């Protein structure tokens, strides 16, 4: 497949299982917040590059690209990618795509971005897009993980993003961040599905329960989480949105189906 060669300019290991790569960006690459692209490596002993789908963490206007990945010890790509260093090269495809974008949703008051694990990645781009805050009064970012150290970007969301030169004021006024942990002591504990079903999540944020006429929802994370939340949303009268027919919720079908 055709791809741009980009140079790694930053690597951050959050813990033993999660890492972030930042690369140069060919400014001819255009994408919407929430989309993904094929990214990977050209191995010396292979005819074709080894590529996988990665959501953009960076905002569409950033000069650099950023990707958030789990480390899979025996994974064909991540077993190599996790050892990458500054100055190494990666391949980035030319055709961003994806269904987890704002035009798939109807207008509403509150936008819920519900993520588990590295499903946070597309929402990091979405919460840095001014268009998100122009469309919705409140943007609620919920990130569910097993361990506290799995809360990638936690400090950035709390401390850096409110001072962002482009969206800082909107973040301070409109973004509600709700991290939750399942296997360690933390301020908020429990699965996203359970907290939504019980109403704990919305009560904690001083918001009314999810309602299809007012709220819009984006889902990204484990297939089980996406499946369970889709069933919950369907029962509450939400409709799945597409580019041709916007609805009440959206998820990345390329990852979940």
Structure overview:
With 257 residues, the protein is of the alpha/beta class. The chain has helices spanning 78-81, 121-126, 130-135, 154-160, 168-174, 192-198, 200-204, 223-235, 253-256; strands spanning 3-13, 18-24, 36-41, 50-55, 64-70, 89-93, 110-116, 138-145, 175-181, 215-220, 249-251. The strands form two sheets. The protein has a six-stranded antiparallel β-sheet with strand order 4-3-6-1-2-5, with no helix packed on it. A five-stranded parallel β-sheet has the order 9-8-7-10-11, with helices on both faces. It is globular. The chain starts with a strand and ends with a helix. The model has no long low-confidence stretch (mean pLDDT 96).
Instruction: Describe the global form.
Output: globular
Largest sheet: 6 strands, antiparallel
Low-confidence stretches: none
Number of strands: 11
- Spatial strand sequence of the major β-sheet: 4-3-6-1-2-5
Structural class: alpha/beta
In helices, the fraction of residues equals 10-25%
The sequence of SSEs as H and E is EEEEEHEEHHEHHEHHEHEH
Oligomeric form of this entry? single chain
Note the beta-strand portion. Answer: 25-35%
Count of helical regions: 9
Gyration radius, rounded: 18 Å
Distance between the termini: 23 Å
Give the rounded overall mean pLDDT.
96
């Amino acid at each position: 497949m055709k791809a741009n060669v980009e140079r790694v300019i930053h690597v951050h290991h959050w813990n033993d299982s999660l890492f972030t790569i930042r690369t140069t960006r060919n400014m001819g690459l255009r994408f919407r917040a929430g989309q993904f692209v094929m990214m990977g490596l050209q191995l010396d002993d292979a005819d074709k590059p080894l590529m996988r789908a990665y959501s953009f963490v960076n905002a569409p206007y950033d000069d650099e690209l950023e990707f958030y990945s789990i480390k899979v010890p025996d994974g064909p790509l991540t077993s190599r990618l996790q050892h990458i260093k500054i100055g190494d090269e990666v391949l980035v495809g030319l055709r961003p795509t994806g269904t987890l974008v704002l035009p798939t949703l109807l207008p509403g008051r509150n936008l819920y971005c519900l993520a588990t694990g590295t499903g946070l990645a597309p929402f990091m781009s979405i919460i840095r897009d001014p268009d998100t805050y122009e469309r919705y009064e409140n943007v609620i970012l919920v990130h569910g993980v097993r361990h506290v150290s799995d809360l990638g970007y936690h400090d950035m969301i709390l401390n850096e993003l409110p001072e962002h030169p482009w969206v800082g004021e909107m973040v301070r006024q409109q973004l509600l961040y709700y991290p939750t942990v399942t296997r360690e002591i933390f301020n908020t504990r429990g699965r996203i599905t359970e907290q939504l079903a019980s109403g704990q999540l919305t009560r904690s944020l001083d918001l009314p329960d999810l309602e299809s006429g007012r709220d819009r929802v984006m889902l990204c994370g484990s297939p089980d989480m996406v499946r369970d939340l889709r069933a919950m949303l369907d029962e509450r009268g939400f409709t799945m949105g597409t580019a041709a027919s916007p609805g009440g919720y959206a998820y990345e079908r390329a990852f979940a189906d």
